[in-house]
Structures
1.
Amino acid sequence: MQDLALVAVIAVALGFDFVNGFHDAANSIATVVSTRVLSPRMAVVWAAFFNFVAFLVFGTHVATAIAKDVVKQDVLSIGMIFAGLVGAIVWDLITFWFGLPTSSSHALVGGMAGAAVAKAGGHVLVLTGLRKIGTFIVLSPFTGLAVAFILMVGVLWAVHRVKRVEFLNKVFRRLQLVSAAAFSLGHGANDAQKTMGIILALLIANQKVDKKSGVPLWVVLSAHAAIGLGTLTGGWRIVHTMGSRITKLQPAGGVCAETAAAGILFYTSHAGIPVSTTHAITGAIVGVGSTHRLTAVRWGIAGRVVWAWLLTIPASAVIAAISYAIVSLVS
Amino acid sequence: MRDRRALFFVAAAVVCFLLSFVADNQRWFARILAAAYIVLAAASLLDFRSHDRLAARVVERAAADTAETALERAGPARPDQP
């Protein structure tokens, strides 16, 4: 019975990964689609491929952080993790419905924290881990903004004497394929690892693996496959918000935004910090828009996004806590 | 008129610097980012001022051109005119 429940919750975790893929697919491909470098169909195939192959490039530091740095390990149980996942998935679906590019990662962290607090109280939270995640909630968009701004200014300075605009656009359209691939690679690495972390936590809770052990290969492969398949199904409502409503992007801007965001994801994946791909790319898009002038950025839309970010952790935590109460009543 | 972009960058630098106190082993990251924002704010301010000066020069030149054209149209001044 216990094993059956374990398999069922692992399936839900992979389902979350799938939802994460289609929710965040927009981030990887919005700029490529909005600058018409690739058709929407080709763009999702491109992104899904690089989501999947990310496991060949990056380690599993983020997975370990999710499994061990959010809540204390002795509180982990199948019911608690299931409730955390429900909190994250429900919040993701709500924001997906309204077309808001919120963070699946922070929904997951909020869900786990909410369910753990509902089960055993506030003392089970790992404050150092949560502080690191909380700090990068703010730092990642700011980093994206600064790096994209610097890259864009550099590109503008490098090409300002070139008169053939059509030629430049052609070059940057090609480069965008590379930058979108890099971003998808980072997305696959950072986001798929969150699910790996959840599955690792489940396995630790059920004594299927040792507390100090790493992530088993089957977990790595299944998490990457799930996010890749999710990306294939795409999330068009959010593509629209990210690709055109925050600021209008040209191919050069798309390259700079994606390269900046990919850089953040590479660094944080390496450092074991779970960040939001949404935050990274939104900051980068705002950075590119700011090189023209601040009014080139539609701050109303950006503000709506910020509100959604602020609400993500508390809202998913509350949903998870309610879910845990229901799970406890039923079991 | 003020350079709102520079102000925004200064605010971002302050936020990043404040976060460096809670960033544990990523303190250096937050501080480098804060420093980068200060440099960006300074660069943005210089850019804003140079644009401002350029605009003032263009306005001056246009005013001088208009005055010159008006004088040319009026023709040479007659000696009996004051």
Note: Chain B has one domain: 4-72.
2.
Amino acid sequence: MHTGRVAALPRANVDTDQIIPKQFLKRIERTGFGPSLFFDWRYLADGSPDPAFELNRPDARGASILLAGHNFGCGSSREHAPWALADYGFRAIIAPSFADIFHGNCCQNGLLPVTLSEKAVQQLFHRAESATDGYELTVDLMTTIVRDARGFESAFAIDAYRRDMLLQGLDEIGRTLRHEPEIAAFESARS
Amino acid sequence: MEPRTLFDKVWEAHVVTNRFAGVRDDGGPVLLYVDLHLVHEVTSPQAFEGLRLAGRGVRRPDLTLATVDHNVSTGDRGLPVADQVAALQLATLASNAREAGIELHDLDSPDQGIVHVIGPELGATRPGSVIVCGDSHTSTHGAFGALAVGIGTSEVEHVLATQCIVQSRPRTMEVRFTGTPQAGVGAKDLILALIRRLGTAGGSGYVLEYTGDAIRALSMEGRMTVCNMSIEAGARAGMIAPDETTFEFLASRPRSPRGEAWDRAVEAWRMLASDPDARYDHAVVIDSAALGPQVTWGTNPGMTAEITERVPHPSDAPSDAERQSYHRALEYMDLRPGTPLEGLRVDRVFLGSCTNGRLSDLREAAGVARGRRVASGVRAMVVPGSQRVKAAAEAEGLDRVFLEAGFEWRNPGCSMCLGMNEDILAPGERCASTSNRNFEGRQGRGGRTHLMSPAMAAAAAIEGCLVDVRGVVRGRG
Ligand code: SF4
């Protein structure tokens, strides 16, 4: 269960080129991408934060839940995108829909993608907009429910396998390796 | 037996276990065996590092193939790599490949090139196989009747360690292109028209199978262009059933089977086509004869129009949510609703990428450029998809056609498709590009990308503006 401040980014089709532009993909580590998150939107040409960008608003400071429009994370398969979001401090992303590869990449990194209906997300945008000094949400993976302190509540769906992985923080490779005999049998059957 | 689709057949032949990880419900993921794992420098270093930290090895280096493409310079290969961070990434892949015994086509290899160009070229891409790569445009390989999906770096590590991926079964969509396209309308136009129709998320959760006369008539290069951009419609993969065109393409490739083994392979590949009564979860039909050349006007590949159309108004957006996107896109692209697309001035032209960097693409563009000159003030570059493409193009004199027309002729790599190297747009520059993504800043911060076919891009270079290639070719007389 996670409770945290919401950063609202009311844009659709946010692609991974925006989340982490290519010039930052040359690193060979998984960490340190947070400062480059949304680089082209976040900073002005002179390197100072763009006050007009949603994440730079004072009420989004310290946010750990990102609220966004549909088809979030479309485009490239770069896992640098969830690495950057997680490194920045996000623990969950709420949107009406996610791009396929990005969704999988988030789960691999303990960053929870929460799919809510378009209507529920619109409601959250309104609530975030009208809360003047920051808006908080609670995302509960156990009960698969998102709620705020003022009566908003909505269930979300996530497949059992992913939920399990996220809750138990399981090493997926280790899990697959338990099927080693089946993999070996498959290999020898076709060679 | 139930009639099955091409996808069903490939999927079912690769399920290692469907009692995976104790999750029993039908919608749950299965473990799928991977026949070919393609690796490049940008999405692999953290995966190899992860293996090392866990004390794990690479299970099947013989089913893994690596190349460098994303961050390589397309300039003089005789010089050391100028970008130190990029150089480290290249060196890291080289040492990882050496250590694991993985075949690598490094900068000095005659087979170096964009990962999705060299796989098919070498005959590593085979019908009926499961192919993965830490790259979204892995869908390209589906042109051969393979199930080819893009994966993230954690999954790259997973495949290196286990030679399997965890996948939940996608739904299937038949995309049928009927009729015969007009002259000047090709594979790129078919796929852009589809993405316009479906939207960038319309294929989400699906594997697309392309069928119909217009697909059958395409060369393998054209089919790869179509499958390549399946991901831009949000699809997991795109596939085309193998046929004589496929077999002919593969017949003499370095890694293709020979002799009796070849005959057996072809026999098996013929069985892959979807059964006549196979059912898809969804179907779309597009009359290819009705399509004109397509060009994107906005900041995602769904924002496409015919070259004869005008820049749309936000109120033309298909939904409320999209209206906002239209606003933003028009502002970013510096376009006014109602402006004719034809006649928009361009500063740059990019011919290349895994979508359109193959020999037939270069021929198509050279056909337009031959005997003409790039308009003054326009910088146009041609970046072949691989060393083999480059050599073949030079053997038939295409390099001279381009150079005489005033194009730059560069070394293979992803180049300005994503601008990880020095090939980028300056802020505000407008570019006619044969690549696959027109996202904000994709080709350089503030750069404005219009996606189109190689013929259309070459025509834009000559005219200095977006132009209907049908008129340009006719005008040649
Ligand atoms: S050419 Fe472009 S789309 Fe293709 S692999 Fe390279 S960067 Fe990706």
Note: The longest helix of chain B spans residues 84-100.
